[in-house]
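Figure 6 in text form: structure in, sequence out.
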């Protein structure tokens, strides 16, 4: 058993602007806990000086560990890397931009230990600092996900959460290639609690979640937990098939009456409609087949290029 009580996993992508403020706030918050801890900073293939700054800060802050991924693998993959390499009895994941207040970690740890919980979610009680667009898309996302996952997915709980070693060990052996932890963790059914916090403004820099990444996360969430999109395709196909039969019967009746069916347009429309339906179905099937393929390939989700806690004396990471 490791002697580290708490691991704090911080995924970072091009976060050089926020590192000074992060260190300034995170360090006293963790030192004040009075327990042994490590900060597992995961540099998600940043193109800026994130790794260098972390490395330099590690000289004066021995608890700060740097893990550098070789290329940008995404927020969830960076979290996976951090979870796999963390050693603590408890593991907290927190955003680098100080939107999740580090002082809340104390309350999370306390709640977990006092009530014997395995998971404590940080729940955003106040999102007024987020954009209108982000607030509303997030609201719709949580509503939909609660239905899809079927487990009690806490609303407004992002990736600021505390996990026990047991939960982390379970997550580590899951063969998931595109994990979405905010859904995966509740679906495991461990005992859980919540701690409310006000979402702060990003301390520096810009969001690393453009619309493209938000859509990718939403699609991962839906496809990981539900075959509903596949079923929609099946229903569409069934409806189109029924319409096709009806049209055939209609055609036969009209033909037996001796009248020639006028209107080639309708025929063409039917052909086009069916082609479209088939293509949609094929596309959806392809999405799932691609996922099976990815899992079967069993490629690592992340590639660690550097770990400052490795036995070999580390070289200063170069971009
Ligand atoms: N992040 C990451 N890899 C990415 C995108 C984001 O590691 O490809 C990190 C980012 O550095 C931050 C966290 O994920 O620590 C959340 O990102 P951000 O604050 O930009 O998202 P937002 O709060 O705008 O949703
Ligand atoms: Mg943020």
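Output sequence:
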């Amino acid at each position: 058993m490791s002697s580290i009580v708490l691991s704090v996993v911080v995924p970072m992508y091009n976060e050089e602007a926020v590192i000074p403020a992060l260190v300034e706030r995170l360090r006293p918050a963790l030192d004040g806990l009075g327990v042994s801890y490590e900060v597992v900073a995961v540099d998600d293939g940043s193109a800026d000086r994130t790794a260098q700054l972390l490395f330099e800060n590690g000289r004066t802050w021995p608890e700060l560990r740097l893990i550098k991924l070789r290329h940008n693998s995404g927020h969830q993959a960076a979290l996976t890397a951090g979870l796999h390499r963390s050693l603590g009895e408890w593991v907290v994941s927190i955003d680098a931009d100080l939107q999740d207040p580090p002082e809340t970690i104390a309350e999370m740890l306390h709640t977990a230990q006092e009530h014997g919980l395995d998971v404590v979610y940080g729940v955003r009680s106040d999102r007024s600092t987020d954009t209108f667009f982000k607030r509303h898309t997030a609201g719709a996302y949580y509503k939909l996900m609660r239905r899809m996952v079927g487990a009690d997915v806490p609303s407004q709980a992002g990736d600021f959460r505390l996990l026990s070693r047991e939960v982390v060990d379970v997550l580590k052996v899951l063969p998931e290639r595109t994990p979405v932890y905010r859904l995966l963790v509740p679906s495991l059914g461990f005992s859980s609690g919540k701690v409310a916090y006000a979402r702060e403004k990003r301390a520096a820099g810009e969001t690393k979640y453009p619309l493209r990444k938000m859509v990718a996360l939403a699609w991962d969430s839906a496809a990981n937990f539900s075959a509903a999109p596949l079923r929609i395709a099946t229903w569409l196909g069934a409806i189109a098939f029924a319409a096709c039969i009806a049209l055939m019967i209609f055609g036969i009746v009209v033909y037996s009456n001796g009248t020639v069916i006028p209107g080639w347009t309708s025929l063409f429309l039917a052909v086009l409609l069916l082609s479209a339906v088939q293509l949609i179905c094929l596309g959806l099937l392809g999405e799932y087949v691609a996922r099976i393929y990815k899992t079967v390939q069993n490629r690592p989700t992340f590639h660690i290029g550097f770990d400052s806690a490795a036995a070999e004396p580390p070289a200063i990471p170069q971009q």
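Caption detail: The pocket of uridine-5'-diphosphate (ligand 1) is lined by residues 11-13, 15, 44, 72, 74-75, 78, 95-97, 99, 207-209 (CB under 6 Å).
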